[in-house]
Amino acid sequence: MPGFLNGLDPDIGRVLLAQLRNLWTHTSTALEGNTLTLGETAFVLEEGLTVSGKPLKDHLEVVGHARAIDLIYDLVKKDGPVLDRDLFLLHQLVQTEIVLDVYQPVGDWKKEPNGTYRIEGDRQIFFEYAAPEDVPALMAEWLHLLNGHLEADLSRDAALTAYVELHVSFVRVHPFFDGNGRMARLVSNLPVIRSGFPPIVIPREQRRAYLMSLRKYDALAGTPRPGQGLRPISDDLHDFMALCGESWKESLELVDQARQAQARRVRLH
């Protein structure tokens, strides 16, 4: 049971988990272009029905993401370290589109290079993520960083720092051919939830600021290489840290509302 459910009656806790699932799923898939609204996302997940006129792909994405959240809660309770096979299973849930291509594996590290670009003035500059042959070693480093955070009982500020460090490091490696953003927003929340807090979610309205702050960090940090260390330097994370801290308020508010509902029930009885 996540720590943020402590002291809540079972029905209030179930409602809170559903609210967080809906919000987390909607925001993370919307950042990738999913067209379902928060209300439509909740409808699909709660009723098991489709929304007329919306793409099948969008429905599959939200269902897959919701199942991935269930796995996240299971990993929070796991005895022992999180392993690469746990990430592979999570990727299989997130990557719902059927891909019949050995060079675009689902549930395994990428086989081909990938990259993005940033704009500096009037120039567009290409940024290359980690080379495929470097991914196993780099992700071993990333999992060591993750499991180190999972071993600690983090304060709120430390949980935010852990989320930011894990998120930017994961995205900088970009270990999968697709789904890296959704994966990063899921697995980076493991130490947050383990320490008793609700997940940090990035709203769709902050998409541009979110992408720009990640690309700014990538430009400062450069393409990762094995043995160089993945832990970010905190001075380079100011913009992203501020964005994540502000974005966290929505899920924290849902927890506050649940606790207020619990307090009203106690007073009435």
Structural description of this entry:
This protein is 58% helix and 4% strand. The protein has 269 residues and is mainly alpha-helical. The chain has one domain (3-268): Orthogonal Bundle (Fic-like fold), CATH 1.10.3290. The protein has a two-stranded antiparallel sheet with strand order 1-2. Strand 1 and strand 2 (123-128) form a beta hairpin. Helix 1 packs across helix 3. The longest helix has 21 residues, at 10-30.
**Gross CATH architecture:** Orthogonal Bundle
Q: Which sheet architecture does the biggest sheet show?
A: 2 strands, antiparallel
Please identify the top-level CATH class. Answer: Mainly Alpha
Q: What value does the average pLDDT take? A: 94
CATH domain fold name: Fic-like fold
Percent range for helical residues? 55-70%
Class by SSE composition? mainly alpha
Radius of gyration equals: 19 Å
Tell me the span between the first and last alpha carbons.
25 Å
**N-to-C series of helices and strands:** HHHHEEHHHHHHH
How many discrete structural domains?
Answer: 1
**Number of helical stretches of at least 4 residues:** 11
Q: What structural keywords apply?
A:
269 residues; mainly alpha; Fic-like fold; two-stranded antiparallel ribbon; 58% helix
Tell me briefly what this model is.
The chain is mainly α and 269 residues long. The chain has helices at residues 10-30, 38-47, 56-76, 84-94, 135-150, 156-173, 180-187, 190-194, 207-221, 238-247, 249-268, and strands at residues 115-120, 123-128.
